[in-house]
Sequence to fold (305 residues):
Amino acid sequence: MATKFITEQLEITSDSEVQGELNGSKDIIHFNRDADTGSAYCEAGEVTTVGDSHSGVPTVGIPMVRPGSVTGMSVRWAGSTGGTSGFCQLHTPDGFLFGVTLTSSVDITTQPRYTDEFSAGDIFAAFITVNGVDTMRDIVVEIEVIYDE
Amino acid sequence: MAIQAQAQNIESTSDMIVTGEKKGTKQTLLFTNDTGAPAMGSAILKMGTILGAVAFHDGTLTAVLQSRPGSITGVSVFFNASGSSTVDTFNVLVNGSSVWAINIPSHAAGPVICVETQPRYTDSFVAEDGIYVTFTSFGSSAASNIICLVEVMYDD
Fold:
């Protein structure tokens, strides 16, 4: 089948409908954790994501269906004594892939597609460390990805 | 409103902005089970902390109801195996009927990862259909920390 290439930005002011495959779609991967102290891997559904907190190599994680890029991360958390610094990192078996420095109870970062890429079958784990807080709670992490196919 | 139809592939090497509705998008559904399945046993995976095996008023199992029609286009699976096996199976079910059985390749003890994709329209569903996932161990290996992403592609 012939392919029509469009090199300019395409803006559709009405609806678009794809009846074939849509490659390059966005998706959100969810992590959460009820409460913990210091540093912890977040959970995926009801599964505790376990990893080595120092080497950053997760042994359990969410497996990706297709290759793609990580394009965003949002983190929301609460602390028992009000500490407002730390970091949240996305870990794969190859180590640290992407992260955000925590400066408040809500932090969001985005980056261009293809900056941090992954392959089908790579597993994701979300690791969070908050400084100066006795207990973290109500942690919600969302990872935005764009699939290549 | 007029419709401009394009019958060939369209590849955009720049951005695409849609200010109306974007129909035909992909989305993944996360299913997990902490304790998993025993050897020679089965487990229904859960969405969040919701128990999968709860009967609805119509007698069907609890499932993730779909808001739109679409197709199941991909499945990725992770679990920790207690031993080696050659016959473990994941089933994706629509309204209680298996539509896609994924046979896990033979594996040793430890983490197991399996990814499969299929063309759109192969396994379709309609709005209000319920999707859920089961894992069955037919061998001597138990599974824990089961994590499964089911990819769907919506038609509208």
Observations:
- Residues 26 and 146 of chain A are 4 Å apart (CA to CA).
- The longest strand of chain A covers residues 68-79.
- The domain at 26-147 of chain A is CATH 2.60.120 (Jelly Rolls).
- Chain A has a mean pLDDT of 82.
